[in-house]
Amino acid sequence: MSRKVSIQTLADQLGLSKYAVSRALSGKTGVSESTRARVLELARALGYRQNTPGSSGAPTAADQSEPPFALICMNQLNRGEPHYWQRVLSGMISGCNERGWHHAIVSPSLGTGDEHTPPERAIAPHLDWERCAGVIVMGAFPHAVLQRLAQTGRPIVLADHQEPLLNCDTISHDNLEAGITVVRYLLSLQSRRIGLITDDGRAASFAQRKIGMELALNHFHTGQGHTATFREWNVPYEQGEWVNQLAKEIMQMPEDERPDAWIGVNDDIALQWMNKLQEIGISTPQDCRVIGIDNVHSAATSSPPLTTVNLCKEELGQRAIEALQRRIERPGTPKETVMLATSLIPRESA
């Protein structure tokens, strides 16, 4: 008796996932036309026969009428944030729609007893995991959550977060480049005392931007043998009182020691600080320059308009979905880290 040809057989010979082979055989979306052609050609050559309803074979993804979905893991704190994460999410949803995929959004947080629960039930017990094409993780999550996601066996793509211990693809902005850019720009304007307002530990992107700033200060001189000084203020970003506390500290400093240029590690911090400076009688850009990173919509309409570094937020989301499709179709390829380039947008604040 000849050996039965299964979806797993086709997947193994083509170096594809069972999901990709199943979608190709059923004529559904979610795989490229070139991949579909490869699958169909091998299936014909090996004499593969697909199970039909009522047959004794186990049901596969190809037997299901519902399209697959991408599971999007989004931190609960970021769900209502319109300037950055909602725009990244809109790019992901657009990418899913282009492929005929659905999407499901969850905010996983594991309890103490979850280690004895199957990972699918611990993360999202209400979902039909048979239709889950893969997982997109937006931003930072505890390593324990990422490990449980990996245990589901679905391909994972990290968006704007890096986890070296997890073997998965990563799509990020080049935050190091953004940090270098803002400092080099301020140095070109002859700024000598640069202040950074950040929130250590809140996000890996903040830390990467600060490293870029330090690299720029260490490697690029302002000319005539002088280098700029750099001072960091670490503030509790999500607590509004930091603005008043920092303003009080700055007013107690001698004028010749105050920064003549301020960097907000993101636009929201930069905009809040620029408004506060104006309240206490320090104008921008006459008395000091202010620059941010993100290019949120309100940066262009502030008074004065905020100089910033543009991050392609919708594109980040779309590229994450592209990476997930690639991983589905080519599961054995080396993991990838894709960095999206940034660009300076000079405006009146600096």
From TrEMBL:
Pfam families: LacI, Peripla_BP_3. Signal peptide: none annotated. Residues 5-59 form the HTH lacI-type domain. Coiled coil: none annotated. Gene3D superfamilies: 3.40.50.2300, lambda repressor-like DNA-binding domains. Keywords: DNA-binding, Repressor, Transcription, Transcription regulation. Transmembrane segments: none annotated. One of its GO terms (molecular function) is transcription cis-regulatory region binding. PANTHER family: HTH-TYPE TRANSCRIPTIONAL REPRESSOR PURR-RELATED, LACI-RELATED TRANSCRIPTIONAL REPRESSOR. This is LacI family DNA-binding transcriptional regulator. It comes from Paenibacillus xylanilyticus.
